[in-house]
Design brief:
- This is 4Fe-4S ferredoxin.
- GO terms for molecular function: 4 iron, 4 sulfur cluster binding; metal ion binding.
- It comes from Azonexus hydrophilus.
- It is a single chain.
- The protein is of the alpha+beta class.
- The chain has one domain (about 65-275).
- It is about 20% helix and about 15% strand.
- It has 7 helices and 10 strands.
- The strands form 5 sheets. It has a two-stranded antiparallel sheet. It has a two-stranded antiparallel sheet with strand order 3-10.
- Strand 8 (about 235-240) and strand 9 form a beta hairpin.
- The longest helix is centred in the first third of the chain and has 27 residues, at about 15-45.
């Protein structure tokens, strides 16, 4: 072969069928892993964009956007709550993953701690007694005056240092309310399987007990009124129904802070009275 003649091209050995299949499997695994990671990441956005759930935040919480941006998800508020009312958001909470909330029907905040320990434990001011001046206050959020805690009514200082409510109760299903029906209640408010706890001052001021261990007997059901920890937050008022019979109806007052005890203790299912998370006071029409 002369120097000017082109040399034949070198041929790479053909890839074996086994190696080709192995390479293909590796590629598909990589694609699957990437898709999985992207999918899991997107899960955090789905609940946020759909905005289907408004969480009841602990006492003293900043407005939702400020709360989500300032909470570091440390869980300190969870650890100090004496009735374990505060939970941390799960993956379906989106940006609220790991952020504290209260599911009032399961376990409400009954202020068993007296001083609102979750606020004192918060290291960032996400839960606070005193909102910074540069943060606005929504109309209807401020309380008319410091709420009086029934359990401390005979103390020298019976009030809670809360300036704003974190929700407002509402009689959502008046047709289900036992008082509206003229009925009483006897027994365990939520049945023997209910795990919620509450402080009963006549039992022990400092140690909450299971609700199932404290049965009731009422000629007219008024549990949402008597068990509300805040004075003058809800009352039972008479009315005359269409048949001309006198009945009673729970009426939420302006001092409602949104603790959720009324929703937790309501013995009918689903609860006749509920707490609207992050709601503000709009008047007695509620």
């Amino acid at each position: 072969m002369s120097e000017n003649e082109p040399r034949p091209a070198a041929h790479k050995p053909a890839m074996s069928i086994e190696k080709a299949q192995k390479a293909r499997r590796k590629f598909l695994q990589s694609v699957g892993l990437t898709a999985g990671i992207v999918g899991i990441s997107l899960l955090g956005y789905i609940p946020v964009t759909s905005a289907r759930t408004t969480r009841l935040r602990p006492p003293g919480a900043l407005d939702e956007a400020d709360f989500l941006s300032s909470c570091i998800k440390c869980g300190q508020c969870v650890q100090v709550c004496p009735v374990a009312a505060i939970k941390l958001g799960d993956i379906d909470d989106g940006f609220g993953l790991g952020v504290p909330y209260i599911a009032a029907r399961d376990q409400a905040c009954d202020f068993s701690c007296d001083a609102v320990q979750c606020i004192l434990a918060c290291p960032t001011g996400s839960l606070t007694y005193h909102k910074p001046d540069f943060l606005g206050v929504r109309a209807g959020a401020p309380l008319a005056h410091a709420p009086i805690l029934k359990a401390k009514e005979n103390d020298a200082e019976p009030s809670l240092n809360l300036k704003e409510r974190f929700g407002v109760a509402r009689l959502a299903r008046p047709e289900s309310c036992l008082a509206v029906q003229g009925k009483g209640f006897k027994g365990q408010a939520r049945g023997p399987a209910f795990k919620g706890e509450m402080r009963y001052v006549d039992v022990d001021r400092w140690a909450p007990i299971p609700v199932r261990d404290h049965p009731y007997e009422r000629d007219i059901c008024d549990l949402c009124v008597t068990e509300c920890p805040i004075k003058d937050a809800i009352s039972l008022q008479p009315f005359v129904n269409e048949a001309g019979d006198q009945r009673f109806m729970p009426v939420v007052q302006e001092q409602c802070v949104g603790c959720g005890v009324c929703e937790m203790i309501c013995p009918v299912e689903p609860a006749a009275i509920v707490v609207d998370a992050q709601a503000v006071w709009k008047g007695a029409a509620r």
